[in-house]
Amino acid sequence: MKLTMVIDLSRCIGCWSCAVGCKLENDEPIGIWWNRILTNGGEEPDTPSGSYPNLRMTYLPINCQHCDNAPCIKVCPVAALRKRDDGIVFLDWSRCIGCRYCLVACPYGIPAFNWNAPVQSPDNSQFRIGNPAVPVRPVGVSEKCTFCFQRVDVGNLTPKCIEVCPAGARFFGDLDDPNSEVSQLIQNKPTVRLREELGTEPSVYYVPPRNPAIKV
Amino acid sequence: MDMKSGYNLTPEDSILQSVTRTGTAFYVFVCALLVLTGEFLYAWYTQLTTGLVVTGMRSIYNAPNYMGPYIAGGAPWGIYITNFIFWIGISHAGIAISASVRLMDLKKYKVVARMAEVLTLVALPMAGLSIVFDQGRPDRIINLLIYGRFQSPMLWDLTAITTYFMGTIVYLYLSLRGDIDELARKLPGREWFYKRLAMNYEGTESEKERHNRTLWWLALAIVPIMVTVHSVVSFVFGLMIARSSWYSTIFAIYFVVGAIVSGVAAVYSLAWIFRWTYKWESLITDEVLKGVSWALRNVLIIYIYLWIAEELTTRYMGASDDLRVSNYLWFGPYAPIFWTMAIVGFGIPAIILLKPIFGKRHFNPRLTFAASIILNVALWVKRFTIVVPSLLNPPLYQTGVYIPTPTEVSIMLGTFWLAALLYVAFVKLFPIIDLDVVKG
Amino acid sequence: MVNKSTAAVLILGFLILLSGLSLWVLGDQTNSVVSLPLASTGILWAPLLWICGIIVLLSAAFANILRAKYYLLWLVSLIVGYIVIFGIIVAITASLIP
């Protein structure tokens, strides 16, 4: 099984639903986002490039690419980062020593770090908002997208971000299965992956936006 | 054996002054260090109980305690890692001198060999301590010994630094053993300590010969270890394909040469300080200092050559990704620091060190001492400019900023106070100059 | 030039080092697709084993000079001291981190 994600940039409206859904599902504390939407356009977020009327803007949702040749796995000194058989790059929070080498080595700048003791908002002490199968991480460890391993492990191949996207821009599935949605998309559409020249072999494919002038 | 007079001392007693004579200045110095260490401990306590948020470091794209998602990032590594590289650099002092003395039979420099080895012994734990400060969960560092992956450059660091440290302990003990035995006789008050430590040293000619032979082989073995240590430290950066300004073939040699510059400069500084404190002009002669400064000049030239090669490769085509980082460093917020370091930090020592080429009488020990201090400060800043700007220019997004906080600086400086305390403890226990230097 | 005890210590040290590294590789799960092993959880404590091997190797210098009891005193002190340093750091920091 080779879990793969496809994000259709021609449909993404930059609403951050996927980011917020992810944040709730995994009890991410204040300041930490496993899923972020970058703006491909002007200098500031949500601003276009060019000048009126020739304005161009598109969004790039980015999360852990779960690379086959992941630099983060290579550099982790305690094997806290491991590649599962289904393709998920998993960060073991109970083993992480907080050296932040994965933050440094990742070409996409994905891993986030708990600089202070996590503070959830709304406050988590009365009842957990997130999925109870995901432990709350302590201070001093790194964390990142897990392709919702807690859902995959019970047979639900729909991570939270895929579930909540209102534009239907996100797809997830098994690339080894030729009939899955992701296999079909990769076969039929001109998908690209981020920074392929680095040879990281990411598992997240992007369908380019309609405007050919925008580079992913 | 009148220790107090300072006149008419035998050469041996002159050396032992550093062990026996303890003036007011020494106590003031140690008290000041203890106060500063207390401040450092409080700062570290704050960091341990609050988390690394007390530093200026931040994740690549995220910032804590800020509700909005649109945040420019920061640098996940900062002055702690810079400090680590710096102390590893300083640690190259010991073997640089010891190797020259033993392997190349340069007996002239034996007088500064021991102070260099002690510097290595103190510098390596300080490097390790800098890393402990940087970890998010130092209570889990035992994981390095349980689960450590040897594919990770950090494990190469752990292995190489441990090897170098153990090798230095073995080397230092064997070369110290004769002096320990001597001290057992000369300082009867502490005889119980020295006698035990000497471990049945007999002092016969054949035993001394065995010591020297063993030390020769050990020095030979430690040289590749020394090269490996700073090379693996460079590999932590140089193998990162994600960071174009680090991903360079030259990094291993670059770092090793930089370390030798640091080490030799530190030895010069120490030699000058001891000479000045204990009036050892007859032992640490101008000739010796000139020789050390000569070595410093030569490695500095090699280092500047490698630096120029790096800069040229980055900037020539005007198209590479690391040009972005170079421009940020040359013209961005850190530009004043960079240019001061380059012009004042490297330029002035270079001028001072190159001047004696043009006339033997121009060697000025005091000026060269100033050069050695400035050079080590500049090298600390240089490593900062290698680590931080690259992290502030991630591939996909705009840059953030990194300013170390006072707590962070206090913790970082703690390594210097501790190093000083450990060093003076050694000075008060054992002769900082090998007694063999004055024996026949 | 090298006496028997020194040679024995050198060989022993080398063997311990090699076994530490080998145990790591054997416990490793190599992904055949890429050149370097990706996922890996080698035999536990293998790193400590190869570091002990290195310490034994270096202590050969002592074996060449010191008497047996002093040599063993040093060897044990170095290895135990190394582990104790880790233990002290872990103990102090564990009591302070929330």
Provide a descriptive summary of the structure in words.
The complex is a heterotrimer of chains A (216), B (440) and C (98). By secondary structure, chain A is α+β, with helices and mostly antiparallel strands. Chain A has 6 helices and 9 strands; from the N terminus they run βαββαββαββααβαβ. Chain A has one domain (3-207): 2-Layer Sandwich (Alpha-Beta Plaits). In chain A, strands 8-1-9 form a 3-stranded mixed sheet. In chain A, strands 2-3 form a two-stranded antiparallel ribbon. In chain B, 69% of the residues lie in helices and 0% in strands. Chain B has helices at residues 11-20, 24-50, 79-90, 92-103, 110-134, 143-146, 153-186, 191-198, 205-238, 251-278, 286-315, 322-331, 335-354, 365-391, 406-429. The longest helix of chain B has 34 residues, at 153-186. Chain B is an all-alpha fold and 440 residues long. Chain C has one domain (4-96). Helix content of chain C is 71%, strand content 0%. Chain C has helices spanning 4-27, 46-58, 60-63, 68-96. The longest helix of chain C is centred in the C-terminal third of the chain and has 29 residues, at 68-96. The radius of gyration of chain C is 18 Å and the shape is flat. Chains in contact: A-B, A-C, B-C. At the A-B interface, strand 2, helix 2, helix 3 and strand 6 of A face helix 6 and helix 7 of B.
What keywords describe this structure?
heterotrimer, A: 216 residues, alpha+beta, Alpha-Beta Plaits, two-stranded antiparallel sheet, globular, C: 98 residues, 4 helices, flat
